[in-house]
Write a structure and sequence with these properties.
Distance between the termini: 102 Å
Shape: elongated
Bound molecules: zinc ion
Strand order of the largest sheet: 1-2
Largest sheet: 2 strands, antiparallel
Helix content: 25-40%
CATH topology of one domain: Rubrerythrin, domain 2
CATH class of one domain: Mainly Beta
CATH architecture of one domain: Single Sheet
Radius of gyration: 32 Å
Oligomer: single chain
Length: 113
């Protein structure tokens, strides 16, 4: 039957040609982290990748490090504050106004006003 020959011909041409590459997984390395709650976190990353210094513990959310005896502390103990928030902590609004006036005066002097 001619149709049988056509099917066999198609199968020969479409056979996978490089089975070795398909079955060998990329090389991996195991990296172990510990958080402050003594949770052990094992991750697998590509062998040629640089392991991150800190990994978030999936059990408690604390940052975990590769040194079991010295896990990292909380990265962010207090909520994020903008630069302006820190400035406002150090200076009152009146001080800010005085500084602004000083700066404006200096600017005007430079301009020769
Ligand atoms: Zn943990």
């Amino acid at each position: 039957m001619p149709s049988g020959n056509v099917i066999r011909g198609a199968r020969v041409g479409s056979a996978p040609t490089r089975p070795d590459e398909r079955h060998q997984p990329a090389p991996r390395q195991n990296v172990t982290y510990w958080c402050r709650n003594h949770h052990q976190v094992d991750i697998r990353i590509a062998a040629d990748a640089e392991p991150p210094t800190v990994w978030d513990c999936p059990r408690c959310g604390l940052p975990a490090g590769q040194d079991a005896q010295n896990p990292p502390g909380r990265v962010r103990a207090e909520p994020y504050k903008s630069h302006l928030a820190y400035v406002k902590e150090r200076r009152t609004a009146e001080e800010g106004e005085a500084l602004l006036n000083e700066a404006l005066a200096a600017l005007r002097r430079r301009r020769g006003e």
